[in-house]
Amino acid sequence: MDLTFTPRQRAFRAEVREWLAAHVPADPLPSMDTAEGFERHRAWERTLAEARLSAVSWPEEYGGRGAGLVEWLIFEEEYWAAGAPGRVSQNGIFLLAPTLMAYGTDEQKRRHLPRMARADDIWAQAWSEPEAGSDLAALRATATRDPGGDGWRLNGQKTWSSRAAFADWCFGLFRTDPGSERHRGLTYFMLPLDSAGVTVRPIAQLDGEHGFAEIFFDNVHVPDDGVLGGVGEGWRVAMATTSSERGLTLRSPGRFMATADRLLELASRSDDPALKDAAAQAWCDSDAYRLHTFHAAARLAEGGELGADSSLMKVFWSELDLRMHELALDLLGPRAPLAGPWLDGFLFALAGPIYAGTNEIQRNIIAERVLGLPR
Fold first, then answer.
1. Lowest mean pLDDT among 99-113, 269-283, 334-348
2. Which of 77, 245, 360, 368 does the annotation list as catalytic?
3. Which of 84, 126, 206, 357 has minimal CB crowding within 10 Å?
């Protein structure tokens, strides 16, 4: 793989770096898990969209720049290095959008992607249920044909739905054929959260903020154009979303390189050689993930697929993120409880081995599909 950037790519990096230097807010935005912070982050997303930087790899007709994955990775490196705000639109832009590009109709793409790029619609991920967390195929929420023959009626409950407390739309799986095998008879739906019959109940975290919510569906009508990828094809379509969630798009290496750089700066003030060595190793691990991701992007550009490799990536980045933040708290010592961003990052990193499919499940996938071991 050739990692030499082209003149065009270097010019793009320079443009992005200059734009971010001029536009990144001087002070951190309020938490996106509050009503005020959510809207402040939405406004930031619209600022990105005005510069066609909210989704640089998308076709221009949908609000992007028609750039390749390498340019997107370059953008991500510059974005996180600049200390730019977290992406409140990530469920839509990084998870749903790649799936919509692959399985959506032309009308669905025209309807949803431009609004997603402009943050007119922020999406919630409605996957988990009380009895179906990592075992997504155990879901019980149903979708039945509307008696009038126009669309579907959704019933059931989703929980731990990211961004649902303040989002506009959600996407999720529902069982359309209860008599089928676990992974069959599922259909992927998209619907607005202000639909009649939808109740959103925010879940308060330990800090009192609402990063998640429960969603209840009581005979909610969804038209046929709310189905993504075909009736009964939900599992196949959802696996494309989970591949994005675990692999390339949700957690770009730019995030971890920025953290590793900050960690090295913190370690430079320490007198403990073991902690300094650990910080250097964390930087090397972050760079290894960066190089692996560029290789994956090159493979995708040539028509390949991520497949089970996304599980390898998810285990690596989630454990790396937690390890770096634990190391930062060790470096800070007694100051750690007052560490601000480092403590916040540590608390968020704790969830990494759980969301997007627990790492225990990912190791099973790696064992079976990558190493060829028996179930």
1. 334-348
2. 245
3. 206
